[in-house]
TrEMBL record:
Official protein name in the record: Nicotinate-nucleotide--dimethylbenzimidazole phosphoribosyltransferase
GO molecular function terms listed in the Swiss-Prot or TrEMBL record: nicotinate-nucleotide-dimethylbenzimidazole phosphoribosyltransferase activity
Pathway: Nucleoside biosynthesis; alpha-ribazole biosynthesis; alpha-ribazole from 5,6-dimethylbenzimidazole: step 1/2
Gene3D superfamilies per record: 1.10.1610.10, 3.40.50.10210
Any one GO biological process: cobalamin biosynthetic process
Gene designation: cobT
Enzyme Commission code: 2.4.2.21
Family under the similarity heading: Belongs to the CobT family.
Length: 345
């Protein structure tokens, strides 16, 4: 992973100290601007153009009744994204962010997009089999590598000037998948990382815990790569590949909720330093998210009780990142505005 540019960060920090406000009075917004300066290697960083990538996959683990919704929702929601009716479709339209939906494992064939600003691709990795993480590896080594590559290819296809990549996922069963990966990476018990996802009842929650417990029993002590390959999903792998390539190309990554954060934790474990390139949008209501964030040393921008996924939390936080950059670039300095600074007459 490339190193952030500390000289650019220092110049941004100095600029912050000369803007017409008491030092530190813009709080985290100042930190966001300084962080982006380090990543982009410039004292005047930008949040735009931003681009959203959503990876969608089904998961064999849904056969254990771990979600209140049927697996068919995954494909149906992809069509909803493409027609402009999903939460993230609305947010992308509202914010002027192009939305790219990538099928890396949806069982049902999907119809192409009909809305401006939205595009779709089915990656060939979608035709490969996915295993039930409770009893078998979710991906073969080759499928895992191809899913990583599918994510990386999407970032390579983005225009060079894109500064910020927004990541999201769609896959019924994904809070179970993410919990299994998190339990393995964090060495935590199933109960600590399993949550209600889209809203399972007590019996559903107990089934999720059992499934994750079985996966942990099967894979305890696995390397990060083995953990994510055997307990993850093609969408999680594609998220890792996309973030890894974004970072190589010095683009910042705006991280969504629990599921995307688990993918980012796996990436950080496989490529230490990756987390320096991530902005964490929000703390999801999903129970395990706080452990994942804590392990990444991440303080998210928002805590709104969101528990939707599909990049919706990241998109909700984007205007804050826009504001941080606009303030940093656009405010006058004390000198420019003729405003007396503290300690000067
Ligand atoms: C209509 C609908 C839209 C969604 N958009 C994102 N998710 C979210 O819910 C799923 C994870 O929850 P679980 O593990 O409980 O299945 C993922 O697809 C995630 O993106 C949705 C779920 C539903 C039902
Ligand atoms: O935080 C998330 O990513 C999340 C939580 C619940 C359901 N889907 C996604």
């Amino acid at each position: 992973m490339p190193a952030p540019d500390l000289a650019a960060a220092e110049r941004a920090r100095q600029r912050q100290s000369r803007l017409t406000k008491p030092p530190g009075s813009l709080g985290v917004l100042e930190e966001v601007a300084v962080k982006l300066a380090a990543l982009q290697g410039t004292p005047l960083p930008r949040s735009r153009p931003a681009s959203a990538l959503l990876f969608a996959s089904d998961h064999a683990v849904t056969r254990h009744g771990v979600s209140p919704y049927p697996p068919a929702v995954t494909g149906a929601m992809v069509e909803n994204f493409l027609r402009g009716g999903a939460a993230s479709s609305v947010l992308c339209r509202h914010l002027g962010v192009p939305l790219r939906v990538v099928d890396v494992g949806v069982m049902r064939p999907l119809s192409p997009p009909a809305v401006e600003g939205v595009s779709f691709r089915r990656d060939p990795v979608a035709d490969e089999p996915g295993g039930d993480l409770r009893v078998e590896d979710a991906m073969s080594e080759a499928t895992f590598q191809r899913a990583l590559a599918a994510g990386a290819a999407e970032v390579d296809a983005l225009p060079d000037e894109v500064r910020l990549v927004v990541l999201g996922e769609m896959g019924i069963g994904n809070t179970t998948v993410a919990a299994a990966v998190a339990a393995l990476l964090l060495g935590r018990e199933a109960e600590e990382v399993v949550g209600r996802g889209t809203g399972v009842d007590e019996a559903g929650l107990a089934r999720k815990v059992e499934v994750v417990r079985d996966a942990v029993r099967r894979l305890r002590g696995a390397s990060p790569e083995h953990a994510v390959r055997s307990a993850g999903g093609r969408d999680i792998a594609a998220l890792m590949g996309a973030a890894g390539r974004a970072i190589e190309r010095r683009k910042a990554v705006l991280v969504d909720g629990f599921i995307v954060s688990v993918a980012m934790l796996a990436l950080e474990r496989m490529a230490p330093g990756a987390r320096e390139w991530m902005l964490f949008a929000h703390r999801s209501a999903e129970a395990g998210h706080r452990h994942v964030l804590e392990s990444l040393g991440a303080r998210p921008l928002l805590e709104l009780g969101l528990r939707l996924g599909e990049g919706s939390g990241a998109l909700t936080a984007l205007p804050l990142v826009d504001a941080a950059c606009a303030l940093h670039a656009g405010m006058a300095t004390f000198e420019e505005a003729g405003v007396p600074d503290k300690g000067r007459g």
